[in-house]
Design goal:
single chain, 254 residues, Arc Repressor Mutant, subunit A, Chorismate lyase, 2 domains, 7-stranded antiparallel β-sheet
Length: 254
């Protein structure tokens, strides 16, 4: 039986012990924790006390409950279960698609609405703060993974497109094809960062407390003009992204 020391709260001692076992790898990522009853017997405590300790670990993002299977370890040091290669393909028929082998699909119908540009949109799209923008928003799934996807086009760009009168933006590949036909070449840039989710994002993506988002922001440039922004957000411990790294050659200095 594990010895309990006073005066620290008993549930906190249990949480400290389990946390140490998770962080040192004694309980590997993906492994189920012993049941509440097993832990109660091991520590000589009641199940409500054990449950309070497990709830503490849940709030830290170290464990998750998968009913009816039990409580499973989520090690902060474990690599995500999926890796997505970022990039685009362009086939002979002119179709654009993401280069990775993860097949994301919309969960339900997209939402279409208007949104005013924030400072971030101003910086990345080169438009005034407050400018109206068209938005196509979806939740997408691939197996058990979920992500949110927002496709954004400023009004100043949309006025010269078929979507000036119909704000229902198509899928990204169709937008790429449209601008390719009317511009002198397309190119893309992506920005990757981690952030904490807003409450509506946590609910839509089934996020556990303490779980950050991985956000990828892709900007489509038609010639020198930014025309479309995509904001992709996925659970930070469910996916990592991979990029080919370009080599920039510099001239030798004298």
């Amino acid at each position: 039986m594990v010895e309990i020391k006073a005066p620290v709260s008993r549930w906190k001692q249990v949480a400290d012990y389990l946390r140490e076992q998770i962080l040192t790898g004694a309980f590997p990522s993906g492994q189920p924790l012993p049941s509440e009853q097993q832990l109660a017997d091991e520590f000589g405590l009641s199940r409500p006390t054990i449950r309070q300790a497990i709830n503490e670990l849940k709030s830290e993002g170290l464990v998750e409950v998968k009913r009816p299977r039990g409580t499973f370890v989520r090690s902060p040091y474990a690599r995500p279960s999926q890796t997505e290669e970022r990039g685009l393909t362009h086939d002979a028929d002119g179709r654009y698609a993401d280069a990775g082998d993860i097949a994301w699909r919309d969960l339900g119908d997209p939402d279409f609405y208007r949104e005013d540009a924030t400072v971030t949109h101003t910086e990345l799209l080169g438009i005034p703060a407050g400018e109206p923008m068209l938005v196509r928003a979806t939740v997408q799934i691939a197996g058990d993974a979920r992500r949110s996807h927002k496709l954004i086009m400023p009004f100043s760009v949309a006025t010269e497109t078929p979507w000036a009168d119909d704000p229902r933006l198509p899928e990204p590949g169709d937008l790429y094809a449209h601008f390719e036909a009317s511009a002198k070449g397309l190119h893309w840039t992506e920005h990757v960062r981690a952030r904490m989710p807003m409450p509506d994002e946590a609910a839509a993506l089934n996020l556990l407390p303490g779980t950050p988002l991985l956000q990828v922001t892709r900007i489509t440039h038609a010639g020198k003009t930014p025309v479309v922004m995509e904001e992709i957000a996925v659970r930070g411990d469910a996916l990592e992204v991979s990029y080919p790294l370009p080599l920039h050659k510099t001239r030798a200095t004298k």
